[in-house]
Amino acid sequence: MYVAVKGGEAAITNAHALLADRRRGDRSLPALTIEQIAEQLGLAVDRVMAEASLYDRSLAALAVRQSRGDLIEAIFLLRAYRTTLPRFGSSVPVDTAAMKVERRVSATYKDLPGGQLLGPTFDYTHRLLDPSLLTDEAIADPARKEASGDEIMRVSDILAHEGLIEPDGDLPDDHAAGDLTREPLEFPMGRDLRLQALARGDEGFLLALGYSTQRGYGRNHPFVGEIRIGEVEVEMDMPELGFPVSLGRIQLTECQMINQFKGSSIAPPQFTRGYGLVFGQSERKAMSMSLVDRALRAEELGEDITAPAQDEEFVISHSDNVQATGFVEHLKLPHYVDFQAELAMVRKMRADIEATRHADTEMKDAAE
Amino acid sequence: MDLAGNHKALAEPEQRRRCIELLAQTSCDELKAAWNGLSEKPTVKPVRGPETGLVMVRGRIGGGGSPFNLGEATVTRATILLASGTAGHAQALGTDKEKAWLSAIFDALWQEAETRNFVETALLSPTESRIAAEDRQNAEETAATRVDFFTMVRGDD
């Protein structure tokens, strides 16, 4: 017989009040503002936007505050919020070649049009804790230098002229871009859907998988062709006018990973590519994404599938941290009835074994 | 986006596009200030919104290949009618409904001959100049982080 149990309402209410108290912390300290989080913890905000798959700096900052800095909780909050909104339409595909670049580096070409632009990077810092940040010391304005105005050419276009690198990924003309927020996942999937899943995938998971390819689990000899960070226009059709207009700009990080490829029965030796595109500033994520994108193209390129990073169903099914945390964390919710049932079963199994052993002993005794 | 001053050479639809795009980049405070600066407040009838929804932002595989869905962004839009029958539209990233409402009004006022200049001088030109200045500053700050390679001369002579 199944008996429904109720209870815990007062405990839950009080637990939430306690959470609100602990979130606020010491009242003698000023409360964080959303603007402070967006400005000073910008990369945490970027990660929440990327993995929630919703670009809105203010809402992501609110989610960071509400979650006490638990970023997966913040991602969950923002994902939940997006389900309350209607979709007005899709943008014109963003043009990353026209990006207002604030960082652009290439590991394959030293001198390239537009140059190596380091931008605001942690690279080349010594990773020593900086005591000056214990206080609010004045920060000098950044240096300025006249901009060359050169076009910041995409590295993939440079190699493309020699025909040594595969072109940008083209799917058949009649292929409509898949949308995993509208259709259930089915395997195998197109590269478009994979990229959508990877773009919202957990940074840590993709980082580990990308790392695994470097250590030999599906090795694909990568070079960073280019990383660029900056703002692009988001344009959407305005039906009343009959042409697209810009809604404003968003910041993106793009990674073009170039991979050595010895050729296969299908393709000649050339450089192949993995692609990463992420909301906000996150080159670790964009690089990991492009490594995993390339690894997941194993079948397309006629490579042996031997490693976890090449297994599409494994990677895509486990890359979403909201799904993952939901299933892992549900284990802490009451399973009293399930557990009672299992307990009863284990007791019965034990009793059965005891009974059999007892019977065996008696038979043996009788025989002797 | 066009540099300040060049817009008068644009065809009418391009000018309208410029107007809507600049209004999308204008802050709500700037719009409110311009509204308060209007000597005669127009009668405005809401047609749609202001309402907040999502736009699915698309990228291209490899940067220039087939489109894929990257992720969504919040967008807020509004459509209004002036008493004259002129319709104004606005859509901009974010969730600011008051901004969308005011932007739609100013889009309509821009289409009216007698208020076009006001919208241009109070909103469009200042926003255009602000964006150009911000872009220039960012480009110059980035340019200062450009690596100048030099070759070390070995002392083997």
Could you explain how this protein is built, in words?
Chain A contains 12 helices and 6 strands. Chain A has helices spanning 9-24, 34-40, 42-52, 57-66, 71-82, 155-160, 191-199, 203-214, 283-295, 312-318, 321-329, 336-367, and strands at residues 54-55, 87-90, 100-105, 222-238, 243-261, 270-279. A 4-stranded antiparallel β-sheet of chain A has the order 3-4-5-6. Chain A is globular and about 100 Å long. Chain B has 157 residues and is of the alpha+beta class. In chain B, a hairpin with a 4-residue loop joins strand 2 (67-82) and strand 3 (87-93). Strand 2 of chain A pairs parallel with strand 1 (44-60) of chain B.
What is this structure's SSE topology?
The complex is a heterodimer of chains A (368) and B (157).
Chain A: H1 9-24, H2 34-40, H3 42-52, E1 54-55, H4 57-66, H5 71-82, E2 87-90, E3 100-105, H6 155-160, H7 191-199, H8 203-214, E4 222-238, E5 243-261, E6 270-279, H9 283-295, H10 312-318, H11 321-329, H12 336-367
Antiparallel strand pairs in A: 3-4, 4-5, 5-6
Helix pairs in contact in A: 2-4, 3-4, 3-5, 4-5, 7-9, 8-9
Chain B: H1 12-24, H2 28-37, E1 44-60, E2 67-82, E3 87-93, H3 97-111, H4 113-143
Helix pairs in contact in B: 1-3, 2-3, 3-4
